[in-house]
Amino acid sequence: MSATRSILITGGAGFIGSHVVRRFVTKYPQYRIINLDALTYAGNLENLRDVERAANYMFVKCDIRDADGLKAAFAEHTPDGVIHLAAESHVDRSITDPMAFVTTNVIGTVTLLNAAREAWKSSFDGKRFYHVSTDEVYGSLHDGGFFTEETPYDPQSPYSASKAASDHFVRAYGNTYKLPFVLSNCSNNYGSHHFPEKLIPLMINNIRNSKPLPVYGKGENVRDWLWVEDHASAIDAVFHKGANGETYNIGGHNEWKNLDLVHLLCRIMDQKLGRAEGESAKLITYVTDRAGHDLRYAIDAGKIERELGWKPSITFEAGLERTVDWYLANTVWLDHVTSGAYRSYYEGQYTHR
Ligand code: NAD
Ligand code: DAU
Q1: Predicted pLDDT of residue 350
Q2: How many angstroms separate the CA atoms of 256 and 297, rounded?
Q3: What is the structure's pLDDT at 6?
Q4: Is the minimum distance from the CB of 132 to ligand 1 under 6 angstroms?
Q5: Contact call for residues 55 and 351 (beta carbons, < 8 A)
Q6: Residue 39 near residue 63 (C-beta atoms within 8 A)
């Protein structure tokens, strides 16, 4: 079957990217899906074992800062759509190494924009550059309220500043060169294949291993959690139905204080592991707060629901239980990513296919 569309997904070996790749490969067998990823510490092709042999899937190992590599990938695979997820994504790492965030999130995104613009220069008809971004660009909420698409940008960490800059570049290319684009800003995701440096998988892994559960500050910061497969379905909706040049906020209407969430995870894990009630919570340890820690994020996802008919498919309780079950059934995956074993396993195995 000849493909009806060819879509380049960057960062497809990461947490959210692997869910987006899986969804597109299985739901759209008529599309060719090219997963372009540099395989940093956060990129793991084990995340895609179930689809890696699909006829409509291929992997390209390439860094988005490599202009020649991107040019070759566009020439060889002729994508008419780009879904851009590749990024440095962890706030704590951005505090210790901001330049990695500048080079990948800002310069990498501009390098990718240039590659798309050049490859599509004969005509932008039928082309779409989709930039996947974060609610953190809006800053921190202190007095109630929600982030809407009109909330002014006010990034507070090196990570969110780099994502904000990349969003501005995407819009600037839309305005200046008429590059067709859509953009979305999503709240905190959770689910399977989440790298265990982030709150939920880190806590699950530490509870499993009876290690301390490091809560920053007093645990009063609030995050708005969305199941990763619901983010993937929102990305599908925005990619196919979003209006050119528009931005869509994506969120779960599901706010949790960190400490309450850690207690909930402890209760679920006590049950699953057959521990006495309250045993895992004894592992909670208060540690020095994150520098410049944003207090609260909360998304108003009214626009995407009204205009594209998207809303989350499952409750937090159901999603969290599925998530815990996945980590407990995939301890080999957890042990691999925490030991780095997957990197040597896949070393040199995948380039062009
Ligand atoms: P992740 O860290 O799990 O994965 C990032 C992927 O990008 C990895 O596969 C990595 O190898 C790849 N990558 C990194 N630098 C690269 C480079 N220079 N060239 C090519 N590939 C590179 O990230 P994630 O949590 O899946 O986030 C994906 C995207 O979604 C990011 O743009 C992030 O800002 C955004 N986002 C994340 C969340 C969240 O809760 N995780 C929420 C909203 C938006
Ligand atoms: O809001 C979307 C963003 O959510 C994404 O853009 C980022 O890529 C993603 O990493 C996430 O950022 P956060 O900083 O909110 O996620 P993280 O899991 O690192 O932390 C969630 C909250 O938990 C935050 O308030 C810090 C706190 N925390 C985190 C860790 C890792 C702890 O208290 N202890 C920890 O060990």
Answers
A1: 46
A2: 10
A3: 98
A4: yes
A5: no
A6: no
Choosing from 57, 130, 159, 327, the catalytic residue is: 159
Nearby residues of 150 by Cβ (< 8 Å), 6 or more positions away:
none
- Assess if residue 317 is contained within a domain: no
Domain of residue 177, residue span: 5-190+226-250
Q: Is 332 part of a structural domain of the chain?
A: no
Q: Which of 89, 91, 187, 228 maximizes ligand 2 atoms within 8 Å of its Cβ, making it the mutation to test the pocket?
A: 91
Q: How many domains does the chain have?
A: 1
Q: Taking the CA of residue 254 as centre, how many other CA atoms within 13 Å lie in the half-sphere pointing to its CB?
A: 23
Q: Which atom of ligand 2 is nearest to the CA of 217?
A: 33
Structure token pair of residue 104: 């990948």
Q: How far is the CA of 340 from the centre of ligand 2 (A)?
A: 21
Threshold 0.90, pTM exceeds: yes
Q: Is residue 180 included in any domain, yes or no?
A: yes
The CATH number given to whatever domain includes residue 245 is 3.40.50.720
Token digits of residue 334: 């957890």
With a 6 Å cutoff on the Cβ, whether 215 touches ligand 2 is: yes
pLDDT averages per 10-residue partition of the chain, 353 residues: 92 98 98 98 96 97 98 98 98 97 99 98 98 98 94 98 99 98 98 97 97 97 98 98 98 96 97 97 97 97 98 95 97 90 58 40
Mutate to test the pocket of ligand 1, among 8, 89, 104 (most ligand atoms within 8 A of CB): 89
Residue 62 lies in a domain: yes
